[in-house]
């Protein structure tokens, strides 16, 4: 894929204004990303091994190591996704990165989660013509998403928080809380447990696909 074309498409979709989602150059980059996801998922399912080089080609930013993305995952463009250290995404996740999706360090994402930055325009004529608008998603460090969580564009989630399974996150979530529901609301602050003091430097690594 032509890197200049990717940059041109990102400059269009990241501006925060409605854009033609069926324009040929946007379709070309989307299909490139779709093909990479298809290859990655096929090989992972066939061999049980993750092709980390393919993920590094697809994503905008990746750590030197500590990436686990289980099949069958999909993206919109890929190059709007930024990963911190020790990123884990369980089976069947979708990242609709029509605007930047930025994850901090030590992220754990349960199966069947979706991160959706894009929305069709409200105007009926524009919607039928294929126009959409997108807003970014920002996730802090050490956040855990339970299974089947939906996060929409324009949301920021603070450090250390937990998002309960099946939640739909439409508003910002502060740091150090448990949030759940549709729409997701803060349930309570995180509790601490003295059994885990002294483990601050430890990172759990599941070693899938090695």
UniProtKB/TrEMBL annotation:
Maltose/galactoside acetyltransferase domain: residues covered: 16-62
Family matches, as InterPro entries: Hexapep, LacA-like, Mac_dom, Trimer_LpxA-like_sf
E.C. code: 2.3.1.-
Enzyme type, top EC level: transferase
Domain of life: Bacteria
Record carries keyword Repeat: yes
One protein family per Pfam: Mac
Keywords linked to the UniProt accession: Acyltransferase, Repeat, Transferase
Keyword Lyase belongs to the record: no
One Gene Ontology MF term: galactoside O-acetyltransferase activity
Family from the record: Belongs to the transferase hexapeptide repeat family.
Protein name: Acetyltransferase
């Amino acid at each position: 894929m032509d890197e200049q074309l990717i940059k041109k498409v990102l400059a269009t979709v990241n501006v925060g204004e409605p854009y033609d989602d069926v324009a040929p150059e946007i379709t070309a980059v989307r299909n490139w990303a779709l093909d990479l996801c298809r290859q990655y998922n096929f090989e992972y399912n066939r061999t049980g091994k993750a092709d980390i080089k393919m993920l590094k080609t697809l994503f905008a930013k990746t750590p030197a190591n500590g990436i686990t993305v289980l099949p069958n995952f999909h993206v919109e463009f890929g190059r709007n996704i930024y990963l911190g250290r020790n990123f884990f995404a369980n089976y069947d996740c979708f990242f609709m990165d029509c605007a930047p999706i930025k994850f901090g360090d030590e992220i754990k994402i349960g199966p069947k989660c979706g991160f959706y930055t894009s929305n069709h325009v409200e105007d009926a004529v524009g919607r039928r013509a294929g126009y959409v608008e997108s807003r970014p998603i920002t996730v802090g460090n050490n956040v855990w998403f339970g299974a089947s969580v939906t996060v929409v564009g324009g949301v920021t989630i603070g450090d250390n928080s937990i998002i309960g399974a099946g939640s739909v996150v439409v508003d910002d979530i502060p740091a150090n809380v448990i949030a759940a529901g549709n729409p997701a609301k803060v349930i309570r602050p995180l509790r601490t447990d003295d059994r885990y003091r002294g483990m601050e430097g430890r990172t759990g690594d599941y070693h899938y696909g090695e």
